[in-house]
Amino acid sequence: MSQNSPATQPPSLTEVEPYGVERIPDADRSASPLDLFRLAFGGANTFSTCVLGAFPILFGLSFWQGLAATLLGVLAGALILCPMAVFGPVNGTNNAVSSSAHLGVHGRVVGSFLSLLTAVAFFSISVWSSGDALVGGAHRLFGLSRSDLSYVVAYALFAVLVLAVCVYGFRFMLFVNKVAVTSATLLFLLGAVAFAGDFDASYAGIFTASADAATQDLFWPSFIGSALIVLSNPVSFGAFLGDWSRYIPASTPRRRVIGAAFLSQIATLLPFVFGLGTASIIAAKAPEYVDPAAPNFVGGLLAISPSWFFLPVCLLALIGGMATGTTALYGTGLDFSSVFPRLSRVQATVLVGVLSIAFIFVGRFGFDLVQSISTFATMIITCTTPWMVVMMLGFFTRRGWYDPDALQVFNRRQRGGRYWFAHGWNWRGMTAWWVSAVIGVLFTNIPGQFVGPLGDLAGGVDIGLPISLAVSAVLFLSLLWFFPEPRAAYGPEGARLVRTVDVPVPPITGPGSGATEKRPVLATEGP
Which CATH code fits 34-498? Predict the structure, then answer.
């Protein structure tokens, strides 16, 4: 089809997106890997990422030690994340629906649940950090009172704007992130100019040659902990990449899609290093703002900013809050509509948005949840990463082949198909996921917030995430080998690395199933 064909022209920005999680027809897929880059990078090119970038300084590392931890975390996170981008173009739907192939028709709700928790957590972080920055900048610039009413208005402004963008859908969100990528990048570069005179790369942290032995023993736990916090940012996009890449044509080379996802996270070194560098300045000039017991990065940033940078701080808060909020909230509303089919995508988005907004206000003004939200986010990532491993290894063993019709069985309230397995559950993938997630939580060590029962076995180093990664990979492949899946779940070329078994597959029955689908599918028939 010609590139200029009317069928491939993207819809208007003000046209509400018509698609839910059903497979998007090839003729309506007009996005590109560059669009995926813009969405993934735009969603992280914000104050929220700067706050994560400040953690190495909060943990006592020097600037150069913190930079090494940041590079390690971003690179490892990008490598873990980028393969998750291929499911969208292949299946034309989001990653939770694609997970039906590996966790079963009913098991796909695990991905929906994880994406909901991740969205609420990171949406809250973005609104809180951006709202605080906006109010603080307006206070310094215009004398606006830092009252509860000011924060309520700022949070409500972000939340309502984000919800409106998500209701309109993918195209409007893409437009917002196109603007956010360019403008936020320029503002961060302007910030580098603003703080260049105060920056000192020789900031030493607490792990100096004169530090006592007890302090020195904390170096590796602090270094690894910093790297894992940084790594949590790219990994948090794992459940959402399919929401955006599903608009990329299936014929697009997979290496370009994977490359776009990888580079989008490498680009986040800009806000990460901005947060790291400014945190080192804050630690030197206003150390009360980096007290690990009550850190306040936004307040410290405003305290050391030249007066002419207050307005850019407000703009960064507004733009960043919009970009992060839309990427977090959009996909959850999309997936929620498939779990509760009586709700349209727009209705589900509004419902999830209202619940998230309520959580934001209750957490900010009703309880002391703002500090613990970072722990909440870390725990979610620990549970999400094994799910991603199951997905990626499943893609590899299936040679990237999927049955689009069988993936939609849950959404249509049908039964049967290639991915029905045992009453809609693939216990192999489910077992690999929950066992690895539980082990990861047991080994988690977040000093001062949460330490699992086995969290001290590595000398205080948080090894929960690396262990859950390794266990999920070994366990899933072992289960596939010793308890083979039906041959019909694999493509015409058969399985890679694992065995299969020839067993009948139940026919797809229920609403919308055709007469030709009433007979069992034999494993030997293939797709």
Answer: 1.10.4160.10
